[in-house]
Design goal:
The chain is an alpha/beta fold. Strands 1, 2, 8, 9, 10, 11, 17 and 18 form an eight-stranded mixed sheet that branches. An eight-stranded mixed sheet has the order 5-6-4-13-14-15-12-16, covered by helices on one side. It has a two-stranded antiparallel ribbon with strand order 3-7. The structure holds flavin-adenine dinucleotide (FAD). The site of flavin-adenine dinucleotide (FAD) has 42 residues, from helix 1, strand 12, strand 16 and helix 10.
Length: about 425
């Protein structure tokens, strides 16, 4: 039977809300949001002797951090050629280096904190849907080597079967530095690490209002008031009107995943022989990987964030997409389907900074497993120093909606969805 349930949650004991930690009256830093960003920041702050409290509206790890594809990726959502052209060589190099450091950060935390989440550097493949996509990647190897001293490799269509048991692609680009993990096991482990460092984690503590009293912030939560010297907003695609100015800079977009029944060892070896993380070249992209002999297949099947309707429809769409990639899975039972919400900035870049004295890290655009961990850590380090200005991700502006035509409700998503489908057709 198809369960509308997050498969990853069946693989680990997620932090629950049965034993609510009492809310302190006063902290040094209040962190809003209990995902990778918030927990990683809390761990760093607490390790440096700062009294940090994570305030989470639902349960710790409830958001995208326990629902994602678990791909730990190099690079940014925006291609490095565009980043270089837009921001110049020096900033582009610093940003790309951050992406490599972000994977090292995950690797180090997993090791230091003994987090059992299957982290391994399996590498990722960008699979091309049309011959012209592959042609467009031909100078990528030289470009990445010359500009970023980074090795990627082209896999021509004739050799593609060594990487992927599908005939629909026209070759791929391989990056062996990327990795994969089980996202729910990772976020649960990160929560444990933050607590051991001395941070307090508070589930069912939605922040309803953020104000000031003198130099301090006052946070009105559903469990009472809390006073903080500083605030860090780590709410990603779930950013609401408590931080209205930030909400207007972030577009929440749904992403959905199905998990098949357990497949045979032989089939698994045929589908993704080297256990790579794979995503395709489409605007309406698909991403997929294996875990515990299941095919985990995701995509932007509906643009609106998760509801019972979008989840049900997504199961059908994703199964269709999956069997187009892998006809071998025509009879594979789909056991789980779920959705989560991504955060996109209007320039598709990730942004960190300080607005009206409030720190933030937002706009991961589906690249947040490693980056949220890294930016949680490095924004916390900047807070300790008292300035975020030198951070590479603070070196370009965080744009508002064009013409100011956005109040936090993404009315344009159906149009954007249709536009992406048209682009996939012609592009
Ligand atoms: C389906 C899906 C697949 C993805 N796949 C990948 C992938 O393979 N690789 C990759 O790198 N990235 C992926 N991502 C993106 C990645 O999961 C996110 O970028 C990352 O988890 C963001 O972490 P976060 O801590 O910033 O936010 P989240 O984990 O989303 O946490 C934000 C939290 O803030 C809380 N919150 C919001 N408002 C309030 C409030 N007022 N008071 C208190 N709490 C509040 C929410 O309840 C939520 O739990 C995927 C995302 C989704 C949804």
């Amino acid at each position: 039977m198809l369960k509308k349930q997050i498969y990853w949650h069946t693989t680990v004991q997620m932090p629950d809300a049965s034993n609510l930690t009492p809310l302190p009256e006063k902290v040094d830093v209040a962190i809003i949001g209990g995902g990778y960003t918030g927990l990683s920041a809390a761990r760093t702050l607490a390790k440096n002797g700062v009294k940090a409290a994570v305030l989470e509206a639902e349960t710790i790890g409830w958001g995208a951090s326990s629902r994602n594809g678990g791909m730990v990726l190099t690079g940014l959502k925006v291609g490095m050629k565009i980043v270089l052209k837009k921001y110049g060589r020096e900033i582009a190099r610093r940003l790309f280096q951050c992406s490599l450091d972000s994977i090292d950060t995950v690797e180090r935390i997993v090791k230091e904190e003994l987090i059992d989440c299957g982290f391994a550097r399996h590498g990722h493949l960008l699979a091309t849907n049309k011959p012209k996509h592959y042609d467009a990647l031909k100078d990528e190897v030289e470009f990445m080597q010359k500009e970023f001293d980074h090795d990627v490799r082209l896999i021509p269509r004739a050799e593609q079967h060594e990487e992927i048991g599908s005939a629909i692609y026209h070759g791929a680009l391989l990056d062996e530095l990327s990795g994969g993990l089980n996202p729910a096991q990772y976020v649960a482990g990160l929560a444990g690490a933050a607590e051991r460092a001395g941070a307090t984690l508070h589930a069912r503590a939605r922040v309803n209002k953020l104000g000031r009293s003198g130099k301090r912030f006052v946070l009105e939560t559903e469990r009472g008031l809390l006073s903080a010297e500083s605030v860090f907003v780590a709410t990603s695609g779930y950013t609401g009107n408590v931080t209205r100015k930030l909400q207007k800079k972030v577009i929440p977009i749904g992403s959905f995943i199905i998990a098949t029944e357990k497949l045979s060892n032989d089939l698994v070896k045929e589908l993704i022989p080297k256990n790579r993380m794979i995503f395709d070249y489409k605007h309406y992209l698909n991403y997929f990987r294996l875990w515990d002999n299941r095919m985990i297949f995701g995509g932007r099947a509906a643009f609106f964030p998760e509801t019972s309707n979008t989840i049900q429809r997504s199961a059908e769409i994703l199964q269709r997409e999956m069997t187009q990639v892998y006809p071998q899975l025509k009879n594979a039972r789909i056991e789980y389907v779920w959705g989560g919400t991504l955060d996109f900035a209007f320039d598709m870049m990730t942004h960190v900074g300080e607005l009206d004295g409030i720190y933030y890290s937002l706009g991961y655009a589906g690249h947040g497993v490693a980056m949220a961990t890294y930016l949680g850590r490095t924004v916390a380090e900047a807070m300790l120093k008292g300035s975020i200005k030198e951070h590479p991700f603070a070196s370009f502006p965080f744009p508002d909606a064009p013409l100011g035509l956005y109040n936090g409700f993404p009315w344009f998503l159906p149009f954007a969805g249709a536009w992406h489908r048209i682009l996939d057709w012609v592009d």
